[in-house]
Write a structure and sequence with these properties.
There is one protein chain. A four-stranded mixed β-sheet has the order 1-2-6-5, covered by helices on one side. Strands 3-4 form a two-stranded antiparallel sheet. The protein is 47% helix and 8% strand. It has one domain. With 290 residues, it is of the alpha/beta class. The protein binds zinc ion. The site of zinc ion (ZN) has 6 residues, from helix 5 and helix 7.
C-alpha cells in the first residue's frame, strides 16, 4: 500500500489507559477462561474480533458498560506522548477515507462529517460503555468515534501472522464504513427494523450491515487511485475470508451454524469487499437488496 503521500488525519484522540485491557478477557468467557496461551483457539477468536462488535449492538452500551448506555461525554485528554508508527499509518488511512468519502458525499449533494479515531491502551470509556482492547476495533454510534488499541495490530502481525498493511487499513476502513452508515441514517433505520425481530432475523439484518461496511471499505480503496499496490486487493480478500463467520465457527467449534452469523460468511465478505473494490461506487453496496 502506498501511503507516503497521504496526509494524516487530525481527527484523533490519544487516551491514557484506564485499565481493563488485555487480550483474551472476553474470549475467556467463551472458552473457559483459558486466556492467552491456548494457541489456535485464541488465534481464531482474535481474528473473529477484528470486526467483533456490530454497531447495532452498541447503541445501548457494551456488555461491560453501565446499563442504560450512554455515559456522558467521554474524556478527551491527549496523553502526552508521541505517536507510534502504526498510529501514524492509521491516521494516513483515516485521512484518505476522509478525502474519499468527502468527495463521494459532495457528489451526492451532501456533506461528510469525519469520525474521530481514539487510540487507547487497554481500556477506556466510550459512549457505548467501557472499551477494551480485546473487543477489537469498533465504531460507537453514540459518540461518533472509532476505538482502536493498536496493540491489536501488533498481536496480529507478530503472533498471528495476519497479512500486510492493507489488512489493517481494511479494518479501519470497515469501521469508517459504519460511520458512513451512521451519517446516512442506515444504522437508525436498521435498528428500528430490528425491534420486533427474533434473534435469527436480527442476526440476518446485522450481516447486511457488516457486509455493507466491507463493501464501503472496498469503495474507499478503489477511490484512492494511488493507494493499492499489486497484491493488496488479494491480501484484503484473504483477510475478509479469515474473518468470515463460517471460517471462525468451523475453527472454533468444528461446525457451522449459519443462523448464528452476525458478520457474514467468508464468501459473502469477500464478495462484498470485491464489489466495492471493483466498482468504487457506494450505490453498488446494496447488501440489503440481494
Ligand atoms: Zn463491523
Amino acid at each position: 500500500m502506498r501511503l507516503d503521500d497521504e496526509q494524516e488525519s487530525s481527527n484523533f484522540e490519544v487516551r491514557s489507559g484506564e485499565g481493563g485491557g488485555g487480550f483474551g478477557l472476553p474470549i475467556g468467557m467463551a472458552f473457559g477462561r483459558g486466556g492467552i496461551g491456548c494457541g489456535g483457539i485464541i488465534i481464531v477468536a482474535i481474528l473473529g474480533l477484528i470486526f467483533g462488535v456490530n454497531p447495532l449492538q452498541l447503541f445501548g452500551g457494551t456488555d461491560n458498560g453501565s446499563p442504560g448506555g450512554f455515559q456522558g461525554p467521554a474524556p478527551t485528554e491527549q496523553a502526552d506522548r508521541t505517536l507510534s508508527p502504526v498510529e501514524h499509518t492509521s491516521l494516513k488511512v483515516l485521512g484518505s477515507t476522509e478525502r474519499v468519502w468527502g468527495a463521494l458525499f459532495e457528489q451526492a449533494g451532501s456533506h461528510y462529517a469525519p469520525t474521530t479515531l481514539v487510540f487507547y491502551p487497554g481500556g477506556t470509556r466510550s459512549g457505548c460503555g467501557f472499551a477494551k482492547s480485546a473487543m477489537g476495533p469498533f465504531y460507537c454510534p453514540n459518540d461518533d468515534r472509532i476505538f482502536l488499541d493498536t496493540s491489536f495490530f501488533d498481536e496480529l502481525k507478530t503472533r498471528f501472522g495476519a497479512p500486510g498493511d492493507f489488512a489493517q487499513a481494511y479494518v479501519i476502513a470497515h469501521e469508517v464504513g459504519h460511520h458512513v452508515q451512521d451519517l446516512n441514517g442506515l444504522l437508525d433505520k436498521v435498528r428500528a427494523q430490528e425491534a420486533g425481530l427474533d434473534e435469527r432475523g436480527a442476526n440476518a439484518l446485522q450481516v447486511n450491515v457488516e457486509l455493507q461496511a466491507d463493501c464501503y471499505a472496498g469503495v474507499w480503496a478503489a477511490n484512492d487511485k494511488n493507494l493499492l499496490e499489486p497484491g493488496d486487493a488479494e491480501a484484503g480478500l484473504r483477510a475478509a475470508a479469515a474473518v468470515g463467520d463460517d471460517t471462525i465457527q468451523k475453527a472454533s467449534q468444528g461446525y457451522v451454524v449459519p443462523e448464528g452469523f452476525t458478520h457474514g460468511s467468508a464468501a459473502q465478505r469477500q464478495h462484498w469487499l470485491k464489489v466495492g473494490l471493483d466498482s468504487g461506487d457506494p450505490a453498488k453496496c446494496d447488501t440489503f437488496g440481494d
